[in-house]
Write a structure and sequence with these properties.
The chain is built from 13 helices and twelve strands. It is an alpha+beta fold. An eight-stranded antiparallel beta sheet has the order 1-2-8-7-6-5-4-3. It has three domains: 6-139, 2-Layer Sandwich (Alpha-D-Glucose-1,6-Bisphosphate, Chain A, domain 4); 161-230, Glutaredoxin; 241-359, Up-down Bundle (Glutathione S-transferase Yfyf (Class Pi), Chain A, domain 2), CATH 1.20.1050. Helix 4 runs parallel beside helix 6, helix 7 (241-270) packs antiparallel against helix 9 and helix 7 (241-270) runs parallel beside helix 10. The chain binds glutathione. Glutathione binds next to helix 4 and helix 6.
């Protein structure tokens, strides 16, 4: 147990005591236990998965966790939070719903200490079985994620995010931007699109794909949403329903209509000599110009009224569209259209000036 020290003891008053030290502030460890999206990535003994985690984290609030054993058996845990003092103390009841222990209620108290130590106390009536139970509980705590991945460590932590793809891809950049904006470190790994191993990550053999512990995702919008909702850090979506709907509207319109008009039929086609070592098909670019004009006009119209696509603040929508728009400004067709779209130009400059864009600049520069 690399960053942790653990101690297990069972005493005569049927209380099990475990201790583990993390190199993480208590609030991060507390969140790993109370945020369902994070909890699902590490919960349970080795080999178990956690398809369901619903937690109403407040005194009197109920929780429901369903684990699946490697054998396929389901193990359901139900309980109620008794004390919730973020980020220092959590007390909850714990009752297995299945197997030989069904109906046996125990009380778990976790204390999160400033030096990163988590102390677990479990009042347990099963005195005869406390040895086995202690082992299980310790295994559970061992899988709590660490804040950083250090050399030679095998298991994932809160920051062990891997984004698969090329830094040149605007979609990959969007996925990376969301993690950078949230303050979550990630690694970029090449995606071998034709490789069956990569196709297991992405059934449509595109990039990006993402891995975070047991969470594997494809599609940029899904990865961006996971980054935004699964981690601490500044929210990347509006708080109001209209703003969030607008954000979804732009992400959807970008994916469904604009990406092909900006990407395949303009940028990729114009730079085909460099990318594919073949001449540009001028007919593709020419036929695409009406669609290009419409897409730019639609974006410009919205940005004349609002500073960002979804409202007064930057959101996932801006992080989706801006990386591609930067490429659109490179070929002559894009450059020529810039002066007629001033609101779009101002928006792009503002968004590209965010530090997250500098942190994800493609290596070929410009
Ligand atoms: N709908 C996908 C689109 C991803 C996409 O098209 N990625 C491009 C790179 S920018 C790709 O993988 N292209 C390789 C190919 O088409 O073979 C998403 O949102 O992630």
């Amino acid at each position: 147990m690399n960053t942790a020290t653990a101690a297990t003891a069972a005493n005569t008053d049927h209380t099990l005591r475990l201790e583990r030290r993390f190199r993480a502030a208590p609030d991060r460890v507390f969140r790993a236990l109370t945020d369902p999206a994070i909890l699902k990535t590490w919960w349970g003994p080795p080999g178990f998965t956690t398809p369901r985690a619903e937690l109403d984290v407040r005194p009197g609030g109920a929780y429901a966790i369903d684990m699946q054993a490697p054998s396929g058996n389901n193990l359901r845990i139900r309980g109620t939070f008794r004390e919730v003092v973020a980020p220092s103390r959590l007390v909850y009841t714990w009752a297995w719903q299945d197997g030989g222990y069904a109906g046996v209620a125990t009380l778990v108290a976790l204390d999160f200490v400033a030096d990163g130590t988590v102390t677990l106390l479990r009042g347990d009536p099963r005195v005869d079985d406390v040895g086995r139970h202690g082992r299980r509980s310790r295994q559970g705590l061992e899988r709590l994620p660490r804040p950083t991945r250090g050399p030679g460590r095998g298991r994932p932590g809160m920051s062990d995010v891997i984004v698969f793809g090329s830094d040149l891809s605007p979609f990959v950049r969007t996925a990376r931007l969301t993690f950078v904006e949230k303050g979550v470190p990630h690694q970029l790994e090449a995606a071998a699109l034709a490789d069956p191993a990569y196709r297991a990550r992405h059934p449509y053999a595109r990039m990006p794909a993402m891995e975070h512990g047991r969470v594997r995702l494809f599609e940029t919008a899904a990865i961006a949403r996971y980054a935004n909702e699964g981690f601490d850090g500044p929210p990347l979506q509006p708080t109001d329903a209209v703003g969030r709907a607008r954000m979804t509207q732009w992400i959807s319109a970008y994916n469904a209509y604009m990406a092909v008009v900006f990407g395949q039929r303009l940028v990729i086609e114009r730079f085909a000599p460099r990318i594919f070592d073949r001449p540009t098909n001028e007919a593709v670019i020419r036929d695409n110009l009406p669609d290009l004009d419409r897409a730019l006009k639609v974006l410009n119209g919205s940005l004349a009224d609002l500073p960002y696509l979804a409202g007064p603040n930057a959101s996932l929508a801006d992080l989706h569209v801006a990386p591609m728009l930067r490429y659109v400004g490179m070929p002559p067709e894009g450059q020529q259209r810039r002066p007629a779209r001033p609101a779009l130009g101002r928006w792009l400059e503002t968004v590209l000036a965010r530090p997250s864009f500098a942190a994800t600049m493609p290596k070929f520069g410009s």
